[in-house]
Amino acid sequence: MTMKAIIAITGATGFIARQLQKHYSDRFEFILISHKSNQSSYSFDDIKANPMLLSKAVAVIHLSGANIGDKRWSEKRKQEILDSRIKTTKLLVSILNQLPNKPDLLCASAIGIYPEDNQIYSEYAKLDYNHYTNFSEEITKKWESSTFGYSGRVVNMRFGVVLSGYGGALDKILLPFKLGVGSGISDGSWPFCYISIIDLCNAIGFLIDKRDITGAINLVSPEIIRYKDLINAISQVYKKRCWFNLPKFVIKLLFGQMGGELLLSGQKVVPMKLQEQNFKFTHSNIESCLKDIKLARI
Question: What average pLDDT does range 200-224 have in this prediction?
């Protein structure tokens, strides 16, 4: 019987981690790491005390981090968001550097690292890691910088908005439509770069296999759409009318800076490295993605 490769996942109770475990249950054996240990997972304190718990892992998928869209960004909340990513990443790097055989480190990041202008960005864009124009840039640049001290292979996975029917941002966008009062936001003219949960899981497995790929990877669909294209596609697929568009000032009033950065702006990003490696996307357009979500396939 073929032995399963061992993969460690931090942030093990999160939406993406749960989907990865489900997707790869037949292929990988998982070491789960959460903030608190229990019968099924270790804590960061456990692996700090005994780094050899990770000695047989071929890769560590680092997904720990407070949900950036969970609540308004007070100064205290911003610090929690930063600490939950940077402190755990630095701790993980120091633990993994102690191992004789270095597992690959696949660390979450986000396309918020790119500027919010009309240019199209690939992984080859030059970025200044010491300069931030907004909080999204600060999070991602500090997060990625925290991996630079690792002596093994590092992949910085820059996620777009992950779309699934089982969690994530789409739940909140779909809710008004399911209640019969579908709504968009303003003119919806800003970019909306997404990836289906199936493509995300497949891409992470692809990155584990393709060990010559290192550094930044954009995990987004090849299709660049606008937020209004998403709303129009939802209306068509779910056969629900979009009755009105919320003005921008309402979003800013309700959600403050978080609303401005996460709901009213976006970046144009392409998955150039995945395309160069001939990765096959299951959902390369928003309609096919939403149809599979509606049928509860993803």
Answer: 97
> In sequence order, what are the beta bridge partners of 110?
159
Torsion of CA 52, 56, 59, 64, to 10 degrees: -40
254 or 196, which is more confident: 196
What phi-psi label fits residue 148: left (phi over 0), alpha (psi between -120 and 50 degrees) or beta? alpha
Can you list the pairs that 31-37 forms with residues at least 24 positions away whose Cβ atoms lie under 8 Å? 31/6, 31/7, 31/57, 32/8, 33/8, 33/9, 33/64, 34/10, 35/64
Q: At which residue do the structure tokens 């120091």 appear?
A: 94
What pLDDT is recorded for position 49?
A: 96
pTM for this one? 0.95
- pLDDT at site 254: 86
For residue 240, the enclosing domain spans 5-294
Under DSSP, is residue 152 helix (H, G, I), strand (E, B) or coil? Answer: coil
How confident is the model over 109-114, as a mean pLDDT?
Answer: 97
CB neighbour class for 75 (10 Å; exposed up to 12, middle 13-18, buried from 19): exposed
Res. 144 pLDDT band, cuts 50 70 90: very high
Tokens of 213: 């790929």
Q: Which of 12, 62, 59 is nearest to 35 (CA)?
A: 12
Q: What is the pLDDT of residue 108?
A: 98
CATH label of the domain that carries residue 281: 3.40.50.720
Could you give the CA distance from residue 50 to residue 47 in angstroms, rounded to a whole number? 5
Q: Hey, which residues does 155 pair with through a beta bridge?
A: 106, 215
Going from the C-alpha of 72 to that of each of 67, 229, 248, the distances in angstroms are: 11, 26, 16
What pLDDT shows up at residue 1?
A: 57
Domain total in the chain:
1
Tokens describing residue 131? 């300069």
- Calculate the alpha carbon distances from 287 to 52, 205, 225, 231, 236 in Å: 46, 24, 11, 11, 9
